Amino acid sequence: MGYSKGQMEDEITKAMILWEKEYKGRGPTEAKTDIIRNMVIVTLKGVLSQAELVLAQNREGRVLIKKLRQQLVEQGRPEIEEIVSRITLRKVVSLHTDISTKTGERVFIFIMDQEIRPW
User: Fold this and answer.
1) What angle do CA 81, 83, 85 make, to 5 degrees?
2) Per-domain residue ranges for the chain?
């Protein structure tokens, strides 16, 4: 049985929510995945804890949050790359991510080795 584009997007979304919950202890309030050519774009909303929201009220706190979250992603990178590769049947070439300490939104952009086609 193969996945349609929408099914791949749904599977990646579910897997990323689960990863966030298991790896970081809490998941996003909203999540969405879009596949465009050779890119997988995952948007997670509501990823900051209450403590991080308070910390984000000043510059030093925002820098700290971004640094910590970047380090956590780097450590979990092999696992999240495997999730996306397993579902798309493509190899991750690069991963780009950032978090907004203003909106509590995190974006992951996975660049794959070739265009993603439903199978």
Assistant:
1) 65
2) 5-112
Q: What are phi and psi of 60, to 5 degrees?
A: -60, -40
Alpha helical stretches, state H, 25-119 = 50-55, 59-88
DSSP state of 4: -
Neighbouring CB atoms inside 10 A of 72's CB total 13
Q: Are 107 and 28 in contact (CB under 8 A)?
A: no
Q: How far is residue 48 CA from its own chain's centroid?
A: 13
DSSP-derived secondary structure letter, 23: H
**Mean pLDDT in order along the chain per 10 residues (119 residues):** 86 95 88 97 94 92 91 92 96 95 94 90
pTM: 0.91
**CA 16/CA 4 separation, integer angstroms:** 18
How many Cβ atoms from other residues are within 10 Å of residue 3's Cβ?
A: 16
- Which burial class, exposed, middle or buried, applies to 49 when counting CB atoms under 10 A from its CB (0-12, 13-18, 19+)? middle
pLDDT computed for residue 24 by the predictor: 80
